[in-house]
Amino acid sequence: MSINLQSYAQLLVCPACQSKLVVDGRSFVCRSEPCRLRYDVKDDIPVMLSEEAQPIALEDWAAIMAKATTRS
Ligand SMILES: [Zn+2]
């Protein structure tokens, strides 16, 4: 059984900058352009630690944000 990441995304914020998050596959991405951290979900548990998060490239982030806003 898999958790609903979309409902998590509405509850959680980025621990680094307190911005909202969007779902990308099985991970969360921070909505803040200067921050752009990706948080993985391991064994259905979101790993909301800025030390564990991966920064993503600006163009990848922009594509994720565009996809996320058209979906909702
Ligand atoms: Zn952030």
Please summarize the sheet with the most strands.
5 strands, antiparallel
- The strand count comes to 5
Note the beta-strand portion. Answer: 25-35%
CATH topology: N-terminal domain of TfIIb
Amount of helix: 25-40%
Bound compounds, please?
zinc ion
Mean pLDDT: 91
Kindly provide the radius of gyration, computed on alpha-carbon positions and rounded to a whole number of angstroms.
11 Å
* Broad structural category: alpha+beta
Q: How far do the termini sit from each other? A: 23 Å
Number of domains: 1
Which labels suit this protein?
single chain; N-terminal domain of TfIIb; binds zinc ion; 72 residues; 2 helices; 5 strands; five-stranded antiparallel sheet
Topology summary:
Elements: H1 5-11, E1 21-24, E2 27-30, E3 37-42, E4 45-46, E5 54-55, H2 58-71
Antiparallel strand pairs: 1-2, 2-3, 3-4, 3-5
Bound molecules: zinc ion (ZN).
Zinc ion (ZN) is lined by residues 14, 16-17, 19, 30, 32, 35, 37.
What does this structure look like?
With 72 residues, the chain is of the alpha+beta class. The protein has one domain (5-71): Single Sheet (N-terminal domain of TfIIb). It has 2 helices and 5 strands; from the N terminus they run αβββββα. Strands 1, 2, 3, 4 and 5 form a 5-stranded antiparallel β-sheet that branches. A hairpin with a 2-residue loop joins strand 3 and strand 4. It is globular and about 30 Å long. Residues 14, 16-17, 19, 30, 32, 35, 37 line the site of zinc ion.
